[in-house]
């Protein structure tokens, strides 16, 4: 048994009450400004003020003492929405969007997601795993200790399974906890351009059984959007996935208010993601269902779109998480500090709400809240030491990462 004392820190954490935090609860963060945490074999044993902990425990009982230097200590970031399993960047498309081309116009012309599909289909599983590993390590150096990675650049059985295998390979190579999501319904591939319903049938009857048989993916996601998958098509895919034992996620109302948020609530999806265009009724349905809104401000930044209405959602009682949407097209960032800053400065979230969104609520969005996302007894000791006094440093010190130390299961890991 190895016991560590993490001391002389300003500890901030959401409090896990057994469900995602919503409304006023989202901004209620516990803090110990002269705090300490006891870690036993990588698991949190106790947290509180240093004086309280030291009054009960003899310092000689610790195998290691970590001095945080009076800096802020927060749970490791949980990035609950990424597409970082890809090959090749799409920088030219960024230039086209700056000149006025829309995201959906680029997709219709065979670019966007379909461009990434061509690249991923061509490379080997080993090459794909290595490319994904590089992205995951970069995210780790910016404080992401747990993340989700979606497939969706294969759009056929062979390549979707190859992507999920690559994601699982990265999981086994890194210290991060990684959750895989199947997203064969990311776009309609070129070979089904004029027969989208036939592709839906392929997903339902062939892809989902193959994915479940492979045993890697935990969730199924669908891009429910005008010109991609309709409400009816999305419902059919999600129903089949649910019956096969997969959890549900939906890319909802990103460009148009198609009703994806309401579908997410109807299907009791764990999360509705994007929601840039979600209307009042859709948001109300999410609140009623308890579905987590995973907001992706990096996408609004990249697409130069209005940001999701985080303040309205929180007031309505929707639990909000934030994530990078790391992908080669519409949000090429793996930086959770950047996303935190955008959430505070451009979506009106308080630093406390953003902290909950980037940790505990994000952990609930990928089924990991029993292990990560907050400083609670029995959870993994995944934490970051920041060069600042509070989580606000993540927005205040703009354009850089204030992460100076990363611990996974109580073990210090190199950033450089």
Summarize the structure.
This protein is α/β, with parallel strands linked by helices and 416 residues long.
Mean pLDDT: 96
> What would you report as the Rg, rounded to the nearest angstrom?
21 Å
Number of spatially distinct domains: 2
User: What is the terminal separation in angstroms?
Assistant: 29 Å
> Which structural class best describes the helix and strand composition?
alpha/beta
Reported for the largest beta sheet, the result is: 8 strands, mixed
Low-confidence residue ranges: none
Proportion of residues in helical segments: 25-40%
* CATH class call of the largest domain: Alpha Beta
- Continuous helix count: 16
CATH architecture call of the largest domain: Alpha-Beta Barrel
Total E-strand runs: 16
Percent strand: 15-25%
CATH homologous superfamily assignment of the largest domain: Metal-dependent hydrolases
Query: Any idea of the CATH topology of the largest domain?
Result: TIM Barrel
Shape: globular
Describe the structure.
The protein is of the alpha/beta class. It folds into two domains: 3-75 and 373-413, Urease, subunit C, domain 1, CATH 2.30.40; 78-365, Metal-dependent hydrolases (TIM Barrel). The chain has 16 helices and 16 strands. Strands 1, 2, 3, 4, 5, 14, 15 and 16 form an eight-stranded mixed β-sheet that branches. An eight-stranded parallel β-sheet has the order 6-7-8-9-10-11-12-13. Strand 7, helix 6 and strand 8 (177-185) form a beta-alpha-beta unit. Helix 7 (196-214) packs parallel to helix 8 (231-243), helix 9 (260-266) packs parallel to helix 10 and helix 13 packs antiparallel against helix 14 (351-358). The longest helix has 19 residues, at 196-214. The two termini are 29 Å apart.
């Amino acid at each position: 048994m190895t016991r560590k004392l993490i001391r002389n820190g300003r500890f901030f954490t959401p409090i896990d009450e057994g469900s995602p935090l919503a409304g006023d609860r989202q901004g209620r963060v516990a803090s110990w400004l002269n705090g300490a945490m006891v870690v036993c074999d990588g698991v949190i044993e106790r947290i509180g003020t240093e004086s309280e902990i030291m009054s009960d425990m003899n310092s000689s009982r610790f195998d290691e003492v970590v001095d945080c230097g009076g800096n802020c200590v927060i749970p490791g970031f949980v990035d609950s929405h990424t597409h970082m399993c890809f090959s090749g960047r799409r920088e030219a498309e960024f230039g086209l969007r700056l000149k006025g081309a829309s995201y959906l116009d680029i997709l219709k012309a065979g670019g966007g997601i379909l461009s990434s599909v061509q690249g991923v289909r061509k490379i080997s599983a080993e090459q794909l795993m290595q490319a994904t590993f590089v992205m995951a390590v970069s995210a780790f150096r910016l404080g992401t200790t747990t993340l989700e990675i979606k497939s969706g650049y294969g759009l056929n059985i062979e390549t979707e399974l190859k992507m999920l295998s690559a994601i699982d390979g990265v999981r086994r190579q890194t210290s991060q906890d990684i959750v895989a999501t199947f997203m064969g319904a990311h776009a309609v591939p070129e070979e089904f351009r004029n027969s989208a319903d036939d592709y839906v049938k392929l997903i339902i009857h062939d892809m989902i059984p193959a994915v479940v048989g492979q045993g890697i993916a935990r969730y199924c996601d669908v891009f429910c959007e005008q010109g991609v998958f309709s409400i009816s098509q999305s419902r059919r895919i999600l129903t089949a996935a649910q019956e096969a034992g997969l959890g549900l996620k939906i890319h909802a109302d990103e460009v148009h208010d198609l009703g994806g948020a309401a579908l997410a609530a109807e299907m009791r999806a764990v999360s509705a993601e994007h929601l840039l265009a979600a209307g009042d009724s859709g948001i109300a349905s999410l609140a009623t269902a308890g579905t987590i809104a995973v907001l992706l401000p990096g996408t609004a930044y990249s697409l130069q779109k209005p940001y999701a209405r985080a303040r309205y959602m929180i007031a309505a009682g929707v639990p909000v998480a934030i994530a990078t949407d790391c992908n080669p097209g519409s949000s090429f960032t793996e930086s959770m500090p950047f996303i935190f800053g955008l959430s505070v400065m451009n979506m009106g979230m308080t630093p406390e709400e953003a902290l909950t969104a980037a940790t505990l609520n994000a952990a609930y969005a990928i089924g990991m809240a029993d292990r990560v996302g907050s400083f609670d007894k029995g959870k993994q000791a995944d934490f970051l030491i920041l060069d600042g006094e509070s989580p606000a440093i993540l927005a205040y010190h703009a354009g850089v990462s204030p992460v100076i130390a990363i611990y996974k299961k109580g073990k210090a890991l190199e950033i450089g």
